[in-house]
Each structure stands twice: as structure tokens, then as C-alpha cells.
């Protein structure tokens, strides 16, 4: 197979500089055909991208930066293309003999200007990949922009996810085309200069925030609930939420409660801001709340978070997120709660965040947010299935089964209610961990997947934190998490002698 990218010469970007496209681990040849400019870009766009490179990206190039090409060159030309991917807004080449002619659309319009227009209006676009021969939409996604710094970063994220979709289509795997609402942003939006100026101002504000505060600072909420919980009501109403106290220079997140050997513990990510690496810790609960001290239970040289727990074969197992290490590892509890041994590697060679397993119709299904290239890390859902917890784990026929920032990333245990399977998901529309959603899984098999988001939950009077991104329950005990502003009080005190050096928030304050 030979893939041809059709791109505009005058607006060549660094992401276009490639000889291959990775499809299921195979490097498939790519050649570039440079075309004339169909539409001019906003004046000074490349200069603004260069400014962002210096200020926002700390001197590193992004995929949106200008690519300098040799005049009249045809990059990587190897022969007649089997597939054309047309990134321009020009008409389809009527002389093309390619078997497949793909056209990315951004909020329904082709070309880079359409992607830029959506970004400047305040949101990333919904991306469609259309077969121009018959007009059929082959795939659709809504990417997340949690790591997209500035206009250039947002454009790079959009193009990275476009390539993810192209690779999935060309893999031959059946695609599940979701129904996704396009951006509701209205008005003309900001001009490129105004967008970049605002981005620089936001970047400076974030640096000041990080200098003055531990950021982000997550905290765990808990309550005892004898009635219907969040998954039943679809909201955060009910008994008052309490906050698990932390030492201030650590944050707690991703709570998973479990009762084992007659004792109940909540396991969670415990991150020391001074080091920037998470471990897994736990605290015991009795009938009145947390008791005793927080106990470290698992640490590795790499970052750990999201301690998913599962009982299987009379044993208790944990799958902490270790996506930065590039695997999904299974740990066995050899002494509850504080001794765990690495038992098996379930998946390797991929960044998969927040692995969560459910049993359904005789199979185990493992869900996780897959990181592909330079795009976001919360928008692409991969599913694997196995007959046994130890595997072997096989990929779903349509991986990635969904690319949608609002309903992909796992946010806690699956729950079966009245015969229906539910999964909490992160809604990252307004940024990473900004809100929760509750999705009903309508169809799940090794070849099919369909879910419908029934409820959306955001911080508010009932949970006055700034974010909300995990939900779990064990018996009467419900847990969630969120973030708050956590000033570096001791740092302030050392510079202001009159300050009270011991000023630290109480366990239930500073939400």
C-alpha cells in the first residue's frame, strides 16, 4: 500500500514531514504531493506560531510550525498511490486512480482554515473522515486539548488525531462512527493575534499559579450513604461530602474503596508535589469514617495512579496506572493492605491510562484511554478482552472504538444496575478532569461497542471543588475526588516573617 498526502506547499507544516504512517505496527510508505494554495491563511500566522514556539513551547517546535521544503520537490514519491488523503480545501483530483480518496472535515468543512476557524471560535472541531468517492463518513472524533498550548498546539492536536483516524481506517478494522455534536461556539471568535496574546497571558498566569500554589491539588471526598447513590440519581445529592485530610504538599486522587478480610480501605494516588511522582497509598475506614494514618502500599521508580482493584480466584489484585512506563501491570496482594507484588504484564508497548475491567457475558473487558502520538491523552478509548484475568488479552475489533473527549477516559468501576451496565467516564470537554459523566453501555462484545451518556456531573454547591473525575462505591461508602487551590503557605511564611508559619488548611477546608 502507498499513501499519498495532498498538502498545500505554501503552508507546509512539520507534521507533514513523514515517510511512513504506522498502521497496526507496520510502517506504510507515505508520499507528499504539494498543491497550490486553495485559500490564504490569516496574515502573520507563521510569525505567531514562532512566537508561541519560543514562549509557550520553550523553544521546541510543534507539528504546526513551518516546514521548509525544496522548491518543486515531491517528497518521498515512490509510485502510484493506493490511498489519497487530501488535507486541502481544493477539489478532488479527477485524474486520480487511487482506490480510496479520504477527505478530513473539520466541523463539516475541509482544509486547515476550517480547523483554525473552529479553534479561534473557542473549541477544537469535530473531525470527520469522508470517502469522497461515495460521500460516506468513515470515522468521526472530537479530540481533547488538555496538552494543546496555544493556537499552534491546538492545530497540532487536531492533526494528530486526524492521523489516528486515518490509520484506523486503513487498518481495515470496522469503524464505529459515533454521533457527536459539533461545537456550539458562536460568533466570529478571536483573531489569530488576539488568540495568541490571550494564550501567552494564560501561560504567564499559570506559571504564577504554580509558583504560589501546589497545582493541581486533588483531594478525595467521601460519605456514608444508606440510600441511592450518584449512579442511581445521576447527581451529587444526598448526604454531605467530607474531605479526606492531606498534608498539603501531597495530593490524593483516584479513590478506590474495597472491603477485604473484614476491613475496608480506600486506595488512592498519593503524589508528593516536591517530587512530582505518584505512589499508591491507602487509609482504613470504620463505621464513622477514616481511622489511623495513610499507609503507602505500592511504589515504583515510575509514576503510579488510579489503583483499580479487582477480586478474582479468591485473591485481591490491583492494576495501577503506569502509562508512563508503557505497560499495564497486574499486582497481587500478598499482605492486606500494604504488600503487593508485581505478578504479570497484561499489555505492553502502549500508553494506556486508567485501565478498568468489567466482566460481561462470560468475558473480561479491559477499558483504557490510549495515548497516540502528540494528541491528547483522554480522548481515545481502547478495549481488550480475555477469558481470564491473566489473559491473553486481545484487542477489540474496532480499536480505537471511540475518540471523544467527553466520554472516553474511565473514571471508576463499572456498575450493573437493574441488569444494565454503567461506566463512569471523564468529561474533558472543559479540560482534564473537569467533570464526570455516567454512560450506559448498550452493546459490548469483541466486535461491537456502543454507549449512551445519560448524566453529566460538574462541581457545584454539592461539591464545591474545581474539578471532578473519579466515582466509586463500596457498600455504604461513596468516594469522589476533585481539586482545590492549595497555597504553598510555608514558602510564603519564609518570606513574610509576620505570617503564621503553621497556617495549613484543616482536613475539611479549602475546597
TrEMBL record:
Gene3D superfamilies: Glycosyl hydrolase domain, family 43. Keywords: Carbohydrate metabolism, Polysaccharide degradation, Xylan degradation. Residues 250-471 form the Glucosamine inositolphosphorylceramide transferase 1 N-terminal domain. GO terms for biological process: xylan catabolic process. It comes from the Bacteria. InterPro entries: GINT1_N, Glyco_hydro_beta-prop_sf, Glycosyl_Hydrlase_43_Enz. This is Glucosamine inositolphosphorylceramide transferase 1 N-terminal domain-containing protein.
Amino acid at each position: 500500500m502507498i499513501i499519498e498526502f495532498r498538502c498545500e506547499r505554501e503552508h507546509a507544516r512539520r507534521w507533514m514531514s513523514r515517510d511512513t504512517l504506522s498502521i497496526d505496527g507496520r510502517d506504510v510508505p507515505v508520499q507528499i504531493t504539494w498543491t497550490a494554495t486553495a485559500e490564504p491563511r490569516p496574515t502573520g500566522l507563521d510569525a505567531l506560531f514562532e512566537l508561541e514556539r519560543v514562549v509557550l513551547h520553550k523553544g521546541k517546535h510543534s507539528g504546526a510550525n513551518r516546514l521548509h521544503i525544496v522548491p518543486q520537490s515531491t517528497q518521498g514519491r515512490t509510485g502510484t498511490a493506493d490511498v489519497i488523503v487530501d488535507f486541502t480545501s481544493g477539489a478532488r483530483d479527477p485524474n486520480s486512480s487511487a482506490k480510496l480518496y479520504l477527505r478530513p472535515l473539520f466541523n463539516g468543512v475541509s482544509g486547515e482554515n476550517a480547523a483554525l476557524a473552529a479553534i479561534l471560535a473557542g473549541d477544537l472541531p469535530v473531525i470527520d473522515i469522508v470517502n469522497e468517492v461515495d460521500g460516506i463518513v468513515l470515522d468521526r472524533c472530537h479530540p481533547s486539548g488538555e496538552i494543546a498550548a496555544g493556537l499552534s498546539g491546538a492545530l497540532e492536536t487536531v492533526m494528530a488525531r486526524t492521523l489516528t483516524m486515518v490509520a484506523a481506517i486503513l487498518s481495515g478494522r470496522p469503524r464505529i462512527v459515533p454521533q457527536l455534536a459539533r461545537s456550539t461556539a458562536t460568533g466570529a471568535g478571536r483573531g489569530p493575534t488576539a488568540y495568541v496574546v490571550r494564550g501567552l497571558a494564560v501561560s504567564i498566569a499559570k506559571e504564577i499559579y504554580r509558583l504560589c500554589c501546589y497545582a493541581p491539588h486533588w483531594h478525595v471526598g467521601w460519605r456514608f450513604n444508606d440510600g441511592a447513590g450518584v449512579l442511581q440519581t445521576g447527581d451529587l445529592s444526598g448526604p454531605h461530602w467530607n474531605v479526606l485530610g492531606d498534608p498539603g504538599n501531597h495530593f490524593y486522587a483516584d479513590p478506590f474503596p474495597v472491603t477485604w478480610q473484614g476491613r475496608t480501605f480506600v486506595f488512592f494516588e498519593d503524589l508528593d508535589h516536591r517530587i512530582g511522582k505518584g505512589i499508591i497509598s491507602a487509609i482504613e475506614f470504620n463505621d464513622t469514617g477514616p481511622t489511623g494514618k495513610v499507609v503507602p502500599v505500592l511504589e515504583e521508580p515510575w509514576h503510579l495512579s488510579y489503583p483499580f482493584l479487582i477480586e478474582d480466584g479468591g485473591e485481591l489484585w490491583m492494576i495501577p496506572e503506569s502509562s508512563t512506563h508503557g505497560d499495564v501491570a497486574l499486582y497481587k496482594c500478598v499482605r492486606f493492605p500494604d504488600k503487593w507484588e508485581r505478578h504479570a504484564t497484561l499489555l505492553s508497548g502502549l500508553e494506556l491510562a486508567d485501565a478498568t475491567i468489567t466482566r460481561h457475558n462470560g468475558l473480561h473487558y479491559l477499558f483504557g484511554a490510549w495515548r497516540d502520538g502528540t494528541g491528547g491523552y483522554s480522548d481515545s478509548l481502547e478495549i481488550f478482552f480475555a477469558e481470564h484475568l491473566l489473559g491473553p488479552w486481545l484487542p477489540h475489533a474496532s480499536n480505537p472504538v471511540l475518540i471523544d473527549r467527553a466520554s472516553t477516559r474511565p473514571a471508576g468501576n463499572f456498575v450493573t444496575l437493574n441488569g444494565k451496565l454503567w461506566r463512569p467516564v471523564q468529561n474533558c470537554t472543559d479540560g482534564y478532569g473537569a467533570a464526570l459523566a455516567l454512560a450506559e453501555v448498550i452493546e459490548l462484545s469483541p466486535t461491537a461497542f456502543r454507549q449512551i451518556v445519560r448524566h453529566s456531573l460538574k462541581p457545584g454547591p454539592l461539591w464545591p471543588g474545581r474539578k471532578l473525575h473519579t466515582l466509586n462505591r463500596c457498600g455504604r461508602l461513596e468516594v469522589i475526588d476533585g481539586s482545590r487551590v492549595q497555597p504553598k503557605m510555608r514558602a510564603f511564611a519564609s518570606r513574610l516573617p509576620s505570617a503564621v508559619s503553621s497556617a495549613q488548611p484543616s482536613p475539611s477546608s479549602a475546597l
